[in-house]
Amino acid sequence: MFIHPLADVQSVDIGADTKIWQYVVVLAGAKIGEGCNINAHCLIENEVTIGRNVTLKCGVYLWNGTTIEDDVFVGPNVTFVNDLFPRSKQRPTAWVGAHIKKGASLGANATILGGVTIGEYAMIGAGSVVTKNVQAHSLWLGNPARFKCYVCVCGQKLTLQNRCIECDRKYFF
Asked: What percent of the chain shows pLDDT beyond 90?
């Protein structure tokens, strides 16, 4: 494991081969799997679980209640929300975090509302605002984010016959 000397890492539950770069704050209760890459200027609160081989690009803040499964890519400045009715000096009775499933990719500056589940290998386009659950292998774009098409595990759009022209996988939805 590598922790940059300018990072503030309080958690001891961090997997092997994980890299945590400068100006990252990881609170004591956070759980981070092995092989992750946490880029500069990220914050990870106590009630956050991150799986294996996750990449968090710069400027990502993971608030209490957020779960990120294995092999997820979170682009720069992706915003997560865990309080659906925020008020100054008032805390909710429970945090409503997002659940990002295995292999999903979130584009730069996307906003993910609390309570949302993003399915396995789904892709969220840059700048999109996700307000509802996203099914597996789907690409969502816009504000609010809307379904565009299906995508392969390799990231390519599927044909109308649900076949990937890049790796030739066939899907049945």
From this structure: 99
